[in-house]
From TrEMBL:
It is an enzyme of class 3 (hydrolase). Its EC number is 3.1.1.61. One of its GO terms (biological process) is chemotaxis. GO terms for molecular function: phosphorelay response regulator activity; protein-glutamate methylesterase activity. One of its GO terms (cellular component) is cytoplasm. This is protein-glutamate methylesterase. PANTHER family: PROTEIN-GLUTAMATE METHYLESTERASE/PROTEIN-GLUTAMINE GLUTAMINASE, PROTEIN-GLUTAMATE METHYLESTERASE_PROTEIN-GLUTAMINE GLUTAMINASE. Keywords: Chemotaxis, Hydrolase. The active site is at 14, 41, 134. It comes from the Bacteria. InterPro entries: CheB_C, Sig_transdc_resp-reg_Me-estase. PROSITE patterns: CHEB (PS50122).
């Protein structure tokens, strides 16, 4: 089976996100070619330290998104608190204060659905630990666009609700431990 060359990665997580991302993202090498867009459910009224915490652990640049920023490879983009993160078809990132989705802004579904429109089969979508069903419809959109769906094993997640909801919506997704997801992403650092 010939796989489409991946061009971008989207990750969604909620409760337990810092621990999960602290395993996945620091394992990626400095010359990792793909951009990584991340939505973590955050308190809307507090500044997020997520990008700073992970920047200190990662070889890649990690930062909060600025509206209309062009997407660059080898960069980890975090949605700021209280903004939806969208991927435009021209490969720019935009921020929105539209209504919350699944009681969340930023919403994982919004990121995944817009990224699926922009990247199609060249997208890898990953749903990690969390306590809602946000991300399940977005991951379904990734699969419908021909992209790759990865889900953290619910039995190994800090909170299994979100990965289980994603698995229920996308039974064809690959279910992996964090270490297996890390290995999968590392393999994508070289052309297929």
């Amino acid at each position: 089976m010939t796989a489409t060359q991946a061009e971008a990665i989207v990750i969604g997580a909620s409760a337990g996100a810092l621990e999960a991302l602290s395993i996945l993202l620091p394992a990626l090498p400095q010359d990792y070619p793909l951009p990584i867009m991340v939505v973590v459910h955050l308190s809307p009224d507090r500044e997020s330290m997520l990008a700073e915490l992970l920047r200190a652990k990662c070889s890649l640049d990690a930062r909060e998104v600025e509206d209309k920023e062009p997407i660059q490879g080898g960069t980890i983009y975090f949605a700021p608190p209280d903004y939806h993160l969208l991927v435009e078809v021209d490969k720019h990132l935009s921020l929105s204060i539209e209504e919350p989705v699944h009681h969340s802004r930023p919403s994982i579904d919004v990121l995944f659905e817009t990224a699926a429109d922009a990247y199609g089969a060249a997208l890898i979508g990953i749903v990690l630990t969390g306590a809602s069903n946000d991300g399940s419809q977005g991951l379904k959109a990734v699969v419908s666009a021909g992209g790759t769906a990865l889900i953290q094993r619910p039995d190994l997640a800090y909170i299994p609700t979100m990965p289980q909801a994603a698995l229920d919506a996308c039974p064809e997704a690959q279910v992996m431990s964090l270490e297996q997801i890390t290995a999968y992403l590392q393999e994508r650092s070289t052309p297929l």
